[in-house]
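Question:
When you can, review this sequence-structure pair and walk me through the tokens.
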Amino acid sequence: MLAMSEDRFLQDSRQQLSKLHETLMTELIEAKGKAALQAKLLVELRECEEALKRIDIGSFGRCQHCGEAVELNLLKGEPTTRFCLSCNPEI
């Protein structure tokens, strides 16, 4: 990926993750009294915050297991993903 397009991708990913974070915070507030839903939302919120941190430290888009690049289509569809297709335990 060219440096400019990579920067743009990271900006777009940060924006997408920030919107997701805002949505999850709103849903968490609205889920008051629903423990199971709150627990699920907290997990998603934590994953979102971790992805934002990975952007900040420069490891976003790298598999946390093997270190290879995570497939672009996977990142675009699920920006909180931490693993490539080969290492993802859920795929």
